[in-house]
Design goal:
The chain is an alpha/beta fold. The protein is built from 10 helices and 12 strands. The strands form 2 sheets. It has a 7-stranded mixed β-sheet with strand order 4-3-2-1-10-11-12. Strands 5-6-7-9-8 form a 5-stranded mixed β-sheet. β1, α1 and β2 form a beta-alpha-beta unit. α4 packs parallel to α5. Bound molecules: 2-acetamido-2-deoxy-beta-D-glucopyranose (3 copies).
Length: about 325
């Protein structure tokens, strides 16, 4: 079981309510062991005042999860990177401008970002696809038969059909992300904070590929899957899924304050519902389950995939599919 949570924007109490309601943690805030993965799609920072407390808690939870055989996967949102670039409305919680810059570069938070945050995750639904973040290899897809794409892509913004660095997925994007974050953390002198100073933009050492990564068509900012019309989106999504070796693109970034949005039969899932009180949306988490049940015919299985939107007082199926598949190597 995977539970995914969208933008949190500085609201610790609402984050805790969401994690409890999705049974990721128990009443006292400890990892329950009920889920295999907790995925957060970025934008923990800004618009609220609990940022540091939230990042601390997530690191604590990550350790607990791993001890129990689970994992927490964290992603950079455009707001995390904006903070590294030098933009922040949240200075006071860090104890001032200088302290904030130190914390994001060399402090425990900067270190946690560098060690435990990525731009995107390819999360396999079945172990025969390899461990988490195994690059999709089209050459091996045939051998995996009907489950070659039984994986989910998670990230903050979106993977545009015209973004040049989609493959090999996900390592290409994640290595660009890591190199950009490193440059931002090592920039000297640190640019003065924006506002009131001018927005500094990326450091002069950033490459063209890193500029693209952080651009409007890049994974941190792209909104096409959320904003474009159904006909456009659904005609383009299959080619992207095929290339990435996944069945679904799951992202935050573009909120719908009344609920999660499923498009093109669940190939696109938008999970940002404005959880923070700064937005006043609804509290939500998405739960993914996947099972293969053997049939009487050797090599054939019933594959069941369910994605459920969990809200405070009800649940709603976003995807509920069952089909017979062939996978004679399992
Ligand atoms: C938290 O609650 C869980 C389940 O109720 C319990 O097993 C665990 O011992 C508690 N942990 C702490 C630190 O209180
Ligand atoms: C990153 O996560 C691991 C657990 O996977 C934890 O032990 C480590 O302390 C974290 N790193 C930082 C710098 O917080
Ligand atoms: C937002 O979510 C609600 C409830 O799921 C849905 O009725 C509405 O169409 C969504 N809005 C958009 C723009 O998708």
């Amino acid at each position: 079981t995977i539970v995914a949570v969208g933008d949190l924007h500085g609201d610790y109490p609402n984050m805790m309510t969401v994690l409890k309601m999705a049974k990721v943690v128990s009443e006292n805030g400890t990892w329950t062991g009920n889920v295999d993965y907790l995925v957060q799609t970025g934008d923990i920072v800004d618009r609220g005042d609990d940022t540091l407390k939230m990042y601390r808690y997530i690191e604590k939870l990550r350790v607990q999860a791993q001890k129990a055989g689970g994992d927490v996967r964290s992603h950079f949102g455009n707001h995390e990177v904006m903070n590294l670039i030098g933009a922040s409305k949240e200075i006071l919680t860090f104890g001032g401008v200088e302290a904030r810059q130190q914390m994001l570069a060399k402090g425990w938070l900067g270190q946690a970002w560098r060690a435990n945050y990525t731009i995107t995750t390819r999360l396999p639904l079945h172990p025969s696809l390899g461990p988490i973040n195994t690059d999709y290899d089209p050459g091996k897809a045939g051998r995996l038969q009907d489950i070659s794409h039984a994986a989910v892509s998670f990230l903050h913004g979106g993977l545009s059909p015209t973004y040049a660095d989609l493959t090999p997925y996900p390592s290409r994007i994640n290595s660009l992300g890591a190199s950009l974050v490193k440059k931002l953390q090592e920039q000297r002198p640190l640019p003065p904070p924006h506002p009131p100073n001018q927005y500094p933009g990326l450091p002069h050492t950033a490459t063209e590929r890193e500029h693209e990564l952080y651009g409007g068509n890049g994974p941190l900012w792209y909104r096409g899957w959320a904003m474009d019309k159904d006909a456009v989106v659904c005609s383009k999504v299959d080619a992207v899924l095929e290339k990435l070796g996944v069945r679904r693109l799951v992202m935050g970034h573009t909120p719908n304050f009344t609920g999660m949005v499923s498009r093109c039969g669940g190939k696109i899932l938008l999970i940002d519902t404005g959880i923070s009180h700064a937005y006043g949306g609804v509290l939500s988490a998405a739960r993914f389950t996947y099972t293969l049940t053997p049939t009487k015919r050797k090599g054939y299985w019933i594959e069941k995939e369910v994605v459920t939107a969990i809200y405070e007082h009800h649940e709603e199926a976003l995807v509920d599919s069952a089909r017979e598949i062939q996978a004679d190597f399992i």
